[in-house]
Design brief:
Length: 230
């Protein structure tokens, strides 16, 4: 039995390497690693969560999928307890960007060039991108996906040891080349949603007499990516 899996998690799954030994941090129900194991995509998986309840639910789902011999369940605060497990790929999905950055920061063993980090922030992707670049990580790819009318970004990163300062535009929207080399309907929808949100923020800040310099700069970048005229 394969796990039920939505389009958001499928996009994350597509970034996991074939034959990987996967750690799914904050696994919740364990759907992502169960899917990858059932499809023969990965060798084995470590499922971790900070709370016993979600881990127990994941364990139940693993048993139902008949995958207990290929799965280890670990009660862990983020990825802290996962060093030494022989993991090649980490997925950290369905959390805020700031929390994902905190999880990475608390696990120094993730600063390894051979590891792939597949990250899916539900909010504040700009905080996550800024953290990654300023702490020696590089972003290799970004995928945009639409799931039940909502738009998400999935980030593939690894440790390069090279710190970098990035522009506000790149922090908020990722490298332009990720969009330009593989434009998709989901990417366009994602950026249009961001444009609508920023436009509302500008209206509100203008009414309150607040500075809108950053928001105007971000709007210009979005219109440029979407080939929209002012």
């Amino acid at each position: 039995m394969s796990a039920p899996i939505n389009k958001r998690l499928l996009a994350c799954a597509s970034l996991v390497r074939e034959g990987a030994r996967l750690a799914d941090v904050g696994t919740d129900h364990g759907y992502l690693p169960i899917y990858l194991l059932s499809e023969g995509r990965i060798e084995r998986a470590v499922l971790s969560d900070i709370n016993r309840g979600p881990l127990a639910k994941a364990e139940e789902n693993v048993r139902e999928a008949d995958l207990t011999t290929r799965v280890k369940l670990v009660l862990s605060d983020g990825a802290r307890e996962l060093d030494g497990e022989g993991i090649t790929d980490y997925t950290v999905c369905g959390m805020g960007g700031e929390l994902i950055a905190e999880i990475i920061d608390k696990a120094p063993h993730l600063k390894c060039e051979d590891l792939n980090l597949i990250l899916q922030p539900m909010s504040k992707p700009e905080a996550l991108r800024a953290y990654l670049y300023s702490n020696g990580f590089s972003i290799d790819r970004e995928l945009f996906v639409t799931d039940e009318g909502k738009h998400y970004v999935c980030i593939l990163a690894h440790y390069s040891g090279k710190n970098a300062n990035i522009s506000p535009e790149e922090a908020y929207f990722g490298k332009r080349e990720f969009y330009e080399t593989a434009p998709t309907e989901s990417a366009e929808a994602y950026f249009r949603t961001k444009l609508e949100s920023l436009t509302r923020v500008i209206v509100g800040k203008r009414r309150g007499g607040e500075s809108i310099d950053l928001e105007e700069k971000l709007v210009r970048e979005l219109k440029n990516r979407l080939n929209l005229k002012d």
